[in-house]
Design a protein that fits this description.
Helix content is 53%, strand content 9%. The chain is of the alpha/beta class. The strands form four sheets. Strands 1-2-4-3 form a four-stranded antiparallel β-sheet. A four-stranded parallel β-sheet has the order 6-5-10-11, with helices on both faces. A three-stranded antiparallel β-sheet has the order 7-8-9. The protein is globular and about 85 Å long.
């Protein structure tokens, strides 16, 4: 179906184009009408005419079919009120639309999303939470929109630390080392290797020699290295399953994948005349980047010891994602501290011609997870909080909260539901925060069934489904129509019609929190409706209308939550 927003926008755009081609109507939902067009002021400025005169001209030009009234307010705002017949028609189409009004993309893009990015032989911690959750929500949203998503889990699986890790594996013996790694005790394995490296000179020399062998492609060293990688990837998969993340082992493309491509990066940059030797290192100086003293800032591609750093690997990744994956959009869901690094990577890739102008390449920045003290979230002993432990604690809290609700769930059902609620609590708290901002990790608030939380939205959905269980018979929407004579019904209906707009705005801005804002608002509209409009005690056409509104609300909440990676239980 064509969404309500798109219908109005097309009609307004046609009228605006007659006055000044390309002028934006700036259409939004509004409390002063059902929708408000705010673009008249800009149009008036552009044409040099009084805003109200322009507004009156637009009203005279616009196709008002489906609009009950178009009022001019203030200096030139257009307030549009939808007609009951138009709303009835739009809601009627929604009843048979599994996509709830969201059209699938007319052209599917290849969208490469780089997210999560843990390190081999290290456990995932709270610092990986935001990249993983935000990246996965965007992947789900792009897939729903009809695009082809190529997930890239760019893990750290290369470099000098692997010399000591491989030697520690050899010292332990493969059987014991694999037993340790398989139970997810990666941090202990890493710390033990680091301790030996710091105090044992013989171990240190062996480790350095092992790095040389690894980089030279020694078969036995590569085999031992692959054990570390495979055991780590299996551990990552367990964490993703626990959090219900769509990343799979085949999405892991580590730094090692690009190792054979780094010489080509240097050669091609040199042939393009972009490489400059600076203090023995090979660098590119992209225009517009300076240090604190105003001096040109280099992107170091090859270090003075002829080794490669992150810049070379990231440049190789850009080339691979454009040339081989044919990416139309490249998204990097990485924390804010890497902002300048990625700006320089993208700038150099553009200079080299590896990143065409028609390819969108964006650093999807996010803030930090803070503790109650508003500092970086740590354990009481000052250590980084492990992601598995955090999820386990959330599940325990969710189970306790469900026990207090005295539901008639069985023990196995309560355990399963606790996992669903815990995931919702953790994910929604993250996603409902504007991603550029920091947020405080507070499980008590996250698990609450009241307020702007994941469990509250899950409960709203379950309450809707309980209405249909209490019917005692199967319900279908045949014959349902929408008179919307009660204000609370109309208010809920307007919220339902706004889902496509909310989804498209959230996706275009790469801001999942906008979808969260919409879902919370819809749940509140439903609460107001439920308090003002008895459903099961109503009769005839009114009862069918209210049941249809409940059905649409439940389906919209379920779909919206699923796009965030959150399950919507039918019973709580």
């Amino acid at each position: 179906m064509t969404s309500t927003y798109d219908v109005l926008l097309r009609r307004l755009q046609a009228a605006f184009d007659l006055v000044a081609p390309g002028a934006d109507p700036v259409l939004r939902q509004s409390d002063r009408g059902d929708y408000q067009a705010n673009g008249v002021m800009s149009l008036a400025k552009q044409t040099g005419r009084p805003p109200r005169d322009v507004a009156e001209q637009i009203v005279g030009l616009v196709d008002l079919v489906g609009v009950a009234s178009a009022d001019i307010a203030g200096p030139g705002f257009l307030n549009l009120t939808l007609s009951p017949s138009f709303m009835n028609a739009q809601l009627g189409v929604l009843l048979g639309d599994a996509r709830m009004g969201v059209a699938s993309a007319s052209r599917a893009k290849n969208v490469v999303i780089d997210y999560s990015a843990p390190n081999v032989a290290k456990e995932m911690h709270v610092g990986h939470l935001r990249s993983t959750v935000i990246g996965d929500a965007l992947a789900r949203m792009y897939r729903f929109a009809g695009h082809h998503v190529i997930a890239r889990n760019h893990v750290g699986d290369w470099g000098t630390p692997f010399g000591m890790l491989i030697e520690h594996l050899v010292d332990l013996g493969e059987e014991q080392a694999m037993a340790s790694l398989s139970i997810g005790d990666l941090d202990s394995f890493y710390r033990a290797a680091r301790t030996k490296f710091d105090v044992d000179d013989d171990f240190k020399e062996r480790s350095r020699a092992r790095v040389v062998a690894l980089q030279a492609g020694d078969a036995e060293t590569r085999r031992l290295w692959s054990i570390l990688v495979s055991e780590s990837v299996a551990y990552f998969a367990e964490v993703y399953t626990k959090l219900d993340i769509t990343l799979a082992p085949e999405d892991v493309v580590g730094e090692s994948y690009y190792n054979d491509k780094l010489d080509d990066v240097v050669r091609d940059l040199d042939q393009a005349g972009l490489l400059v030797e600076s203090d023995g290192a090979l660098c590119v100086f992209p225009p517009g980047f300076t240090n604190r003293d105003g001096e040109p800032l280099p992107l170091i591609v090859q270090k003075r010891d002829e080794g490669y750093g992150y810049a070379a690997t990231d440049l190789a990744a850009v080339r691979d994602r454009v040339r081989n994956l044919h990416g139309d959009e490249l998204l990097y869901v990485v924390g804010a501290p890497q902002a300048q690094h990625f700006e320089m990577i993208f700038a150099v890739a553009r200079l080299a011609g590896w990143l065409p102008e028609n390819v969108r390449c964006e650093h999807v920045i996010f803030g930090n997870v803070l503790g109650p003290d508003r500092k970086m979230f740590k354990t009481r002993s000052g250590e980084t909080v492990k992601l598995v432990g955090l999820l386990d604690e959330a599940t325990e809290r969710a189970y306790a909260a469900l026990e207090e609700r005295h539901s008639d769930l069985s023990e196995s059902e309560r355990i399963h539901l606790a996992v669903q609620v815990a995931r919702a609590a953790v994910k929604y708290a993250d996603l409902s925060t504007e991603r550029q901002r920091d947020y405080i990790f507070d499980l008590d608030r996250m698990i609450a069934f009241e307020g702007d939380t994941g469990p509250y939205l899950q409960y709203a959905h379950a309450r809707l489904r309980s209405i249909f269980r209490r019917l005692g018979s199967t319900w279908n929407s045949d014959g349902a129509s929408f008179a919307l004579e009660v204000p609370a019904q109309r208010h809920l209906a307007l919220g339902l019609l706004a889902f496509p707009e909310a989804f498209e705005l959230a996706l275009a801005a790469l801001q999942p929190h906008r979808l969260c804002v919409y879902l919370f608002d819809l749940a509140q509209r439903f609460t107001a409706f439920y308090e003002a409009c008895p459903v099961l005690s109503a009769e005839g056409a009114l009862r069918e209308e209210r049941l249809a509104l409940c059905d649409l609300t439940a389906r919209t909440l379920s779909l919206g939550l699923s796009l965030l990676g959150i399950e919507a239980p039918d019973q709580m």
